[in-house]
């Protein structure tokens, strides 16, 4: 998916996706030409890693 699609999917501003990529904080991005692309399995894995553990 594109950076725009990822931002829409996550409900965050597009600039946030670019900042995450620059800081290597978000899901792993792949450069295709001059564009960033994301794979669904990697996005889902990253989302799972962000889950908040509410069991205390």
* Strand order, sheet with most strands: 1-2
Give the distance, in angstroms, between the N- and C-terminal Cα atoms: 36 Å
The strand count comes to 2
> Percent of residues in helical segments?
40-55%
Rg calculated over all Cα atoms: 12 Å
Order of helices and strands: HHEEH
Question: Count of helices?
Answer: 3
Counting structural domains, the number is 1
Helix/strand structural class:
mainly alpha
Q: List unreliable stretches of 5+ residues.
A: none
What does this protein look like?
Helices cover 50% and strands 11% of the residues. With 56 residues, the chain is mostly helical. The chain has one domain (3-49). A two-stranded antiparallel sheet has the order 1-2.
Output the keywords.
elongated, two-stranded antiparallel ribbon, mainly alpha, single chain, 11% strand, 56 residues
Summarize the structure in short.
This protein is mainly α and 56 residues long. The protein has a two-stranded antiparallel ribbon with strand order 1-2.
Layout of secondary structure:
Elements: H1 3-10, H2 14-23, E1 30-32, E2 35-37, H3 40-49
Antiparallel strand pairs: 1-2
Helix pairs in contact: 1-2
């Amino acid at each position: 998916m594109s950076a725009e699609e990822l931002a829409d999917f996550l409900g965050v501003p597009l600039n946030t996706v670019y900042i995450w990529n620059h800081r290597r904080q978000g899901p792993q991005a792949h450069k295709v030409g001059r564009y960033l692309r994301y794979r669904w399995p990697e996005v889902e894995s990253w989302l799972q890693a962000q889950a908040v553990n509410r069991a205390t």
